[in-house]
Amino acid sequence: MKKTIILSLMVFFSALEIRSQDDNKPWERLGLSQTEWMLIEEHNISMHKLEQLLKDGIGVGEYIQKPWEKLGMSESKWMAKRRSGLTNYDIELESGAQIGDWKVDNKDGFRSEITEITRHGEAFSSLFLPGYQQLKSGDKVTGRIMVSLAGGAALWCVVGSVANRRFEVIPVVGIIVPDMIWSYIDYKVKDRLKKHQ
Questions:
Q1: Distance between CA 36 and CA 22 in Å, rounded?
Q2: Contact criterion met (CB below 8 Å) for 156 and 171
């Protein structure tokens, strides 16, 4: 009796599994997303072509962009190069084509962003590390005064907070904050004078 029930349950679940596999959508059987399937239908890509693309490891989105036209070569030649393992960038370099303007712009944009970050980094450090930019630029006297004020106030704050068991606000508000502002203003003024010379 138990064997019959177990056997009938196994047959039932096997039938369900077979039926659920038949209910899979066509894009699921091919391992594609529904969005990719919609692109395939929208661009009328044949099933033979799709199977060839998937076998060659070429994405549907990449194929639809038609990169071979930008490189001035035939689709079959481009696909043969991709099939051999080359990326689009490798194919561009190999064909001697000019690298796209967007790549050059991107490189220049990256340089300008790094320059901006560096410039802002110096301003940031002049505000939060009083005296650092002054010492770095060679203004030793001003830098040492600023570092001494900040260090002394920090020491006062820590020792006073431990001794009194409450946070000491006076050294922070009365010395460190004005020292930070002085350092920042000094850096900005000297930076502008340097730019105008």
A1: 21
A2: yes
Number of domains in the chain: 1
Residue 55 maps to a domain: no
Structural domain that includes position 161: 101-196
104-161: pLDDT as tens digits: 444 555 555 555 555 667 777 888 889 888 888 888 899 999 999 999 999 998 999 9
Question: DSSP 3-state assignment of 194?
Answer: helix
Structure tokens at 15: 């039938």
- Give how far Cα 181 sits from Cα of 68, 101, 171, Å: 58, 44, 15
Residue 142's nearest CA partner among 192, 190, 196, 195 is: 190
Evaluate whether 131 touches 146 at the Cβ level (below 8 Å). yes
Q: pLDDT tens digits for 11-68?
A: 666 655 555 554 566 667 767 777 777 877 888 888 888 788 878 778 778 888 888 8
Dihedrals phi, psi of 44, to nearest 5 degrees: 50, 50
Indicate whether this model's pTM tops 0.90: no
Q: How far apart are CA 101 and CA 98, in angstroms?
A: 8
Residue 192 covered by a domain? yes
Q: Which two tokens stand for residue 182?
A: 């002085």
**Among positive and negative, which fits the CA dihedral 147, 153, 159, 162?**
negative
